[in-house]
Amino acid sequence: MRILFYRYGSICEPDVIAGFRELGNQVTEITTEITQKNLPAKERVTLFHQALTKQSFDFVFSINFYPFISEVCNIYGILYLCWTVDCPVMDLLSFSISNKCNRIFLFDAAQYRDILPRNPECIFHLPLATNPSRWNDVIGQAPRSSVSKYSHDVSFVGSLYTEKCPYDQLSGASDYLMGYLNGIMAAQQKIYGCYFLEEVINERILKEFQLHMPDFYVPPEKSLRDDRLAMARIYLCAKITAMERVRTMTALGERFSVDLYTGSNTQNIPVQNHGLAKTLTEMPLIFHYSKINLNMTSKAIREGLPLRIFDILGCGGFVLTNYQPELANYFTPGVDLDFYGSEEELLQKTEFYLTHEKDRVEIARNGYETVQKYHNYPTRLLKMLSLAFHISAPDEQKG
Question: What is the pLDDT of residue 399?
Answer without folding.
Answer: 42
